[in-house]
């Protein structure tokens, strides 16, 4: 694990391609309700699922909630530079990082996770080609570029 809580896993060895699937964990604030407001929660990205726990010490007791990233939408908030939302259908998690940089790390890893894990259900090459065309290399976030390089995509070299 690096200083940002980022872990790389290559457990899926039955694949022809050598993709490293990112995992991430750390403390974010999660909106609970109007009575309790924002609460610190330990968030874990692993195996296509974003899970949360009351604290890191509570991970042995099971998660308090989980959301699959497969069809999730990750959306940075329009005004709050530390907030982003993760939603699937009508289930929405409102999450907030301590800094805009930390928020961007989470958004980048979640977006990259969707790109990398999509390989089994869609044409990864076309997906990345479209992504690179929309986001020129000049402006591409270095973390996303590194994930694409891990996927051995010649377009970003």
UniProtKB/TrEMBL annotation:
Q: Which Pfam families match?
A: PH
Organism superkingdom: Eukaryota
Cellular component GO terms, alphabetically? cytosol; early endosome; recycling endosome; trans-Golgi network
**Domain PH span(s) in chain numbering:** 21-115
- GO BP term (any one): endosome organization
Keywords in alphabetical order = Phosphoprotein
Give the residues annotated as coiled coil. Answer: none
Q: Which InterPro entries match?
A: Boi1/Boi2-like, PH-like_dom_sf, PH_domain
Q: What is this protein called?
A: PH domain-containing protein
The protein's organism comes out as: Diploptera punctata
């Amino acid at each position: 694990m690096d200083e940002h809580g980022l872990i790389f896993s290559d457990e899926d060895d039955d694949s022809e391609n050598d993709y490293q699937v990112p995992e991430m964990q750390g403390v974010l604030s999660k909106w609970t309700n109007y009575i309790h407001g924002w609460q610190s929660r330990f968030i874990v990205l692993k195996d296509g699922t974003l899970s949360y726990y009351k604290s890191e010490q509570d991970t042995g007791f099971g998660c308090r909630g989980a959301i699959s990233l497969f069809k999730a939408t990750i959306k940075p908030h329009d005004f709050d530079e530390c907030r982003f939302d993760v939603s699937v259908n009508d289930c929405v998690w409102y999450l907030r990082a301590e800094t805009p940089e930390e928020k961007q790390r989470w958004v980048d890893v979640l977006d990259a996770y969707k790109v990398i894990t999509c390989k089994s259900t869609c044409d990864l090459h076309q997906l990345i080609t479209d992504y690179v065309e929309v986001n020129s290399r000049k402006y591409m976030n270095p973390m996303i570029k590194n994930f694409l390089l891990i996927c051995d995509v010649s377009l970003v070299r």
